Amino acid sequence: MRAASAVADTDELDGLRAVLEELGPVVVAFSGGADSAFLAFTATEVLGPERVLCATAVSPSLAPDELTDCRALAAEWGLRLHEVATTELDDPAYVRNDAERCAHCKGALLDALVPMARASSATVVLGVNTDDLVDHRPGQRVAAERGARFPLVEAGLSKDDVRRLSRRLGLRTWDKPAAACLASRLPHGTPVTMSVLSAVAAAESALRALGLRQLRVRHYGELARVELDDAELEGAVERRAEVVAAVRGAGYRYVTLDLEGFRSGNLNPRSGGDA
Fold first, then answer.
1. Pairing between β-strand 81-85 and β-strand 52-58 as defined by DSSP bridges
2. Which of 82, 154, 162, 170 has the fewest CB atoms within 10 Å distance of its CB?
3. pTM of this prediction?
């Protein structure tokens, strides 16, 4: 059974490697999450660092902890990292935060990455997996319309596949908790502002400092709704004074713990996805 599993893993990796070899030079949208990290590592392994540019979009929507990890991963794995500033907060349509917010954000990202790719005859690639296709992801539509490719999808890889293969390759990101952009913590219709994103980032960072891993701080004005993995709920209740202090330290007045636990993408028009 173990031998059969190893063969299957090899076949899946070979499938992704074939997709990347066919693409040639690429610019990887590198957020440091499990998917983009796996894609960046494999692309660099297959094509060589001189043909792979790992571009990290730096803006208030990216949690500071995630940018730090992008830099650490690049150093550990020999990735060619380029940090590029994006300006989605200058776009009134993005700030308005309707159901198409992700489309505006992805448009800003592609505005930055496409010229870089053209300059080196490369293709922009994103770490979208097959599970992402069932969620409300307007950003994926925009990326595809702008010529970006999704190698993980083309290789038929799901989120579980990415984590399993990452573990086999020895990548520490194999079990990294999902981390969508900070704006995903705001209900649609709540304006996206620098101060709100900073508050969410500070609250989540403080909770991680308590040892909590898979979490979201959903922003409702003065109230923060904290989502945690089911396995961490009981412990958080026992340590509620610490949890409350951590979130209040970020500027929230009221702190609630969602008893349904962590649900990725639950503020989307329909459930599912990494948000």
1. parallel
2. 170
3. 0.89
Instruction: Say how many Å lie between the first and final Cα of the chain, rounded.
Output: 35
Q: Which residues contact 140 (CB under 8 A, 6 or more apart)?
A: 106, 126, 128, 132, 133, 150
pLDDT, averaged in runs of 10, over the chain (275 residues): 60 97 98 97 98 96 95 98 94 94 93 95 97 84 93 97 97 92 95 97 97 96 96 94 98 96 66 40
Residues present in the chain in total: 275
What one-letter code names the amino acid at 21? E
**Quick one: 209 exposed, middle or buried, by C-beta within 10 A (0-12, 13-18, 19+)?**
exposed
SS3 content of the chain, % helix, strand, coil (to 5): 55, 15, 30
Is 122 in contact with 25 (CB distance < 8 Å)? Answer: yes
All residues at 6 or more sequence positions from 122 whose CB lies less than 8 Å from its CB, including other chains: 24, 25, 26, 27, 51, 53, 116
